[in-house]
């Protein structure tokens, strides 16, 4: 299943859950027409990436993307329900959406947890962090955007952490008092809190100290 199809379907489902009240603004039905032109697709995604270098998500528009890509707005809406869906696909590699970080066979769960937390923090620094923060801001006022963000970003990270904690509890490396899903929330919470509320909260000191703090918490739970 392509990103565009899946993103479109999630937006449609979210609008239906909301009684269809926001369906015009936040959802578009999945279309079964002609397949999208790969050349146009690449132009749209490249235009989005270039615009996002200097444009906050709130100021980005489908019109600007279409103009930069040299396509019509209807071409974009044929494949994506809104600008956030375009951004998520455009930055899918940078946002690391394709590879949930499950424990490798050669790693202990302690090593896997430390590596996962370190990678999560480093990934959210710089431009990636700004894009994620912008999407989270948009999601507060749009249930469709929230559904996209949950499905294509937050859920993969939470599931990876849950898996590591669960395996560590089974092996006896971690305490078994905290449920894995709650442990994942506890691990991710401070990272995203700092992303949204501080300017340099994800600095090198935090990267160095926080994985150890997480490990001590999970081991003692």
From TrEMBL:
Listed GO MF terms: DNA-binding transcription factor activity; transcription cis-regulatory region binding
Disordered, as annotated region: 18-39
Database matches in InterPro entries: Homeodomain-like_sf (IPR009057), HTH-type_TetR-like_transc_reg (IPR050109), HTH_TetR (IPR001647), Tet_transcr_reg_TetR-rel_C_sf (IPR036271), TetR_C (IPR011075)
Alphabetical keyword list: DNA-binding, Transcription, Transcription regulation
Domain of life: Bacteria
Domain HTH tetR-type: 38-98
SUPFAM superfamilies the record matches: Homeodomain-like (SSF46689), Tetracyclin repressor-like, C-terminal domain (SSF48498)
Binding region for DNA: 61-80
Pfam families the UniProt entry points to: TetR_C_11 (PF16859), TetR_N (PF00440)
PANTHER family: HTH-TYPE TRANSCRIPTIONAL REGULATOR RUTR, TETR-FAMILY TRANSCRIPTIONAL REGULATOR
Name of the protein this chain belongs to: Bacterial regulatory s, tetR family protein
Organism: Micavibrio aeruginosavorus (strain ARL-13)
């Amino acid at each position: 299943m392509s990103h565009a199809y899946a993103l479109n379907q999630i937006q449609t489902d979210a609008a239906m859950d909301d009684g269809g009240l926001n369906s015009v603004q936040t959802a578009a039905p999945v279309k079964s027409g002609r397949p999208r032109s790969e050349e146009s697709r690449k132009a749209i995604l490249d235009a989005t990436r270039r615009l996002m270098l200097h444009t906050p998500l709130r100021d980005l528009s489908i019109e600007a993307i279409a103009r930069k890509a040299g396509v019509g707005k209807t071409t974009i809406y044929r494949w994506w329900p809104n600008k956030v869906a375009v951004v998520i696909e455009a930055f899918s590699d940078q946002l690391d959406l394709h590879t949930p970080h499950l424990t490798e066979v050669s790693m202990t769960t302690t090593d896997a947890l430390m590596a996962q937390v370190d990678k999560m923090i480093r990934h959210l620094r710089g431009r990636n962090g700004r894009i994620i923060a912008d999407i989270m801001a948009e999601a507060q006022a749009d249930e469709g955007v929230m559904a996209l963000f949950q499905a294509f970003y937050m859920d993969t990270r939470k599931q990876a952490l849950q898996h590591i904690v669960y395996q560590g509890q089974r092996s006896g490396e971690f305490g078994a008092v905290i449920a894995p899903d709650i442990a994942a929330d506890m691990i991710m919470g401070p990272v995203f809190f700092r992303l949204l509320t501080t300017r340099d909260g994800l600095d090198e000191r935090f990267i160095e100290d926080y994985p150890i703090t997480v490990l001590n918490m999970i081991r003692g739970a």
